[in-house]
């Protein structure tokens, strides 16, 4: 049942953005605050604000909080096709297959990396929320490739900090439509939830800073294979940035890909693979890196587009 909350803006929040003020008052993320504002569930002195409006001390807030949604716990069961690239007492690196989420989320009923590791008997760090223990970064359910999970509490702390401080080398290969101009470049554009609220993300003024570096490996007649390095790790970042360049990942219909090209190449999801992952080992301090091969569906599509050229 939704909960109605009414209260004045405290003096300490004078001049804050509405979404930031809500985040501090109620303890949820600014993204969640922006969703409530966009849904008309927030009033400031009786009026619906924009998320970037500033609040003044003493202004009256009326907020309708939705009922809490319980996040499902991981189901410990082996995940077919998920292979172990590397494992020691601190970390396990997997090659994540298609159709597998990193951890349980509301609305996801499929397999997860976390559940697969637990089901195969691997010890995982207990740090973090129970439904995503040991998870230090994520890949989309239909993005394949290298993903690291912490096994020790020390490794969890170390890797979370490394990802936050951007000292991890995350590289992806993406087959995108057309030919980016220039062939090598950087996309520096903030990302937030799409205003439509349909689950997509978008380049949005005032969103979270997001930086993607790309370089063309091979150009084909109708597509390009890119090497992509992420500085930040926003949800759907590569997919959003490539779409913003008008060169969406082949097969990524959510972000504007041409379905006829996807059908011709036999691709049923975005052509995007986390090809390598490198970071400082949490215990030894040694730089370690891991590579993964393309899965069968992506390799077949690449072979086809290469043959057509």
TrEMBL record:
Top-rank EC class of the record's enzyme: isomerase
Residue ranges annotated for the Pseudouridine synthase RsuA/RluA-like domain, each copy included: 90-244
Highest taxon in the source lineage: Bacteria
Keyword annotations of the record: Isomerase, RNA-binding
Keyword 4Fe-4S belongs to the record: no
Reactions it catalyzes: a uridine in RNA = a pseudouridine in RNA
InterPro entries: PsdUridine_synth_cat_dom_sf, PsdUridine_synth_RluC/D, PsdUridine_synth_RsuA/RluA, RluA_PseudoU_synthase, S4_RNA-bd_sf
Keyword RNA-binding: yes
Sample GO molecular function, one term: catalytic activity, acting on RNA
Pfam families (alphabetical): PseudoU_synth_2
EC number(s) per entry: 5.4.99.-
Active site: 140
Record-level GO BP terms: enzyme-directed rRNA pseudouridine synthesis
Protein family per UniProt: Belongs to the pseudouridine synthase RluA family.
Chain's role: Responsible for synthesis of pseudouridine from uracil.
PANTHER family for the chain: MITOCHONDRIAL RNA PSEUDOURIDINE SYNTHASE, RIBOSOMAL LARGE SUBUNIT PSEUDOURIDINE SYNTHASE D
Name assigned to this protein: Pseudouridine synthase
